[in-house]
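Running log. JK asked me to keep both predictions on one page so they can be read side by side. First protein, sequence followed by its tokens:
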Amino acid sequence: MKARKIPAVFLAAILTVSGFWVSAQAEGIGACTHMAHGRNQEQTCSAAVNAGVPFVRDEVIWQTVESVKGQLSFPERSRWVESATESGINCLVVLSYGNTNYDSGKPSQADLDAGGAWDCTLPVRDGNPETTADNEYFDAYVRYVDFVSKSLAGKVAAYEIWNEPDIKYFNTKDATAGDYTEMLKAAYRTIKNNDPGVTVLGGAIAFETDFIDGMMKAGAGKYMDGLSVHYYLGKGSPEKRARNRLDEYRDVLVKYGYDKMPVWLTETGWANSNVDEQTQAQYIIRNAVFYDEFLLDHGIDGQYFTYELQDSSITADVLAGMEYENSLGLYKNDFTPKVSAGAVKAFNSLTAGKKLTAVEQTKFVLFYRKSAYTATYSQSGQTVYIVWAESEFDMTINLPDAKTTVYDMQGNIIEDNARGGEKRINATQSPVYIVCDSDPVKIERNFMQRVIAFFADIFRMIANGFTGW
């Protein structure tokens, strides 16, 4: 067998791609909860605090607020806002779903016992008989919005109008994007009249960019302070698809002249039916960095919510066989913390008050699909470098000559009271945090260091049978 030389293109393709050096605020990782479905409010809020979660997303469900036609009140399970705010947590309130007092949709008894309506007939004004009951139904929804936003004025940070109207599960009679925009318009005006400073989000889109296009064509941009979107990547890592999904959503806003409209990511996550706890934690943190990078690149605001805080168990009957839906939490159903709970706490604690200033990606060769990353978060006098790689990767980085502390993904100290300078990092899929008492510097490796690292990884891949290519 003839010896084979490594092609020169290997070396020519070694490159580093750097982000822009401007500022974006890192707000931390929030979490979706289901206190409106009857989950224990005290335990849920305590778990959120223990995970360092600054923001929760939950519902004030129309069916529970108006269980008797014409009589609106806050039942106990809708008082979760009080529990959260008393715990120092910001609140995003979802205003949903249908109400059986006004239309023919009938939720199951199990759904009602769990606090949900799951009658998902979207309120639409009369004139589209295939997708609406009548004007009474639409006007009743607006009265519910009025009651809730008056009652909670000054107590919540944001409202989200409906949930995933682009899919049939939450829009059972196929209301159009134009129909949704009429509801959004009425809700927006009502909320702003009661609470002018609160943020109102439209969309809550599951995946249909065509639905966003229909909304914007119908004038939705004038009746929302931001677009809310969702995505789930199955078993896939955030490096492969996260930015594409976010940019696809935002491209529709740009098309209609709303390039500076905030984009909130109000649902995203990984289920333990698809990935193990360690991988789930790694992906949540890395996904949060890419979301911050998305905000940074476009100069917009937003907020990130992982779905969800606690594994679902609304009722055993409802979730029978739904392993995916029941394993997305930072905590198990009995509030036992998973790896991701500690990882979220570390990320939120170590980046609190800091701004993302750059995400640097280091690739080896064009056909090698994996990279290493360094994200820089900073505030005056202190900088956090978050380092990870899609595959094990030795990195040598030059840090400022300042006091340095290194933390693992769970926030445990690996190295304390060290100094900066040249530091060798064995980057893995679990992000590590390098905290320096200094202003940020651009981290670079010289060409020879990249060449050495490239060949070291080639030899490692050969030894491992090319696993991971």
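And the second, directly underneath as requested:
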Amino acid sequence: MKKVSLLVLSIVLLTTATTAQTNDKALENNKAFTGARATKKMYHAIYQLDNADEKIIDKAIRNINNALNDPRLAGKIKIELIAFGGGTDAYLKGSKYEEDLKALVQKGVVVAQCNNTLKQRKITRDQLYDFIGIVPSGNGELIIRQAEGWSVIKP
């Protein structure tokens, strides 16, 4: 009986040690991970802004800047920010986002607005910052860009 107990205990200890070593290796492998490699010549992303919540707008701008500052994507990324619905509020003159949006445009980001939203909300072009581009449909822009292989990101 003692031999059987000793054998079972040995098996349990050996299994535990093997599992711990496997887990340690997995943790070390994970720690060594530094992200995907950007092997393509060019990457494309369109960010969807359809919410007036300041936290969402701030997050979209922050996410775009993070992508622009990612060293793996340096010189290899084209970004568009398309607003419709509530996201249009970020583009209205007097919003707190004018300087942030100008900075994105100066970094090469296309900042565009859905014309359907303007019509629906009875907003005229002169109510928007003068550097904002206009597209016929925000959804159409997303559909076209996705079909072209662009990543669609909704912060």
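Observation for JK regarding the second prediction: The chain has a mean pLDDT of 92.
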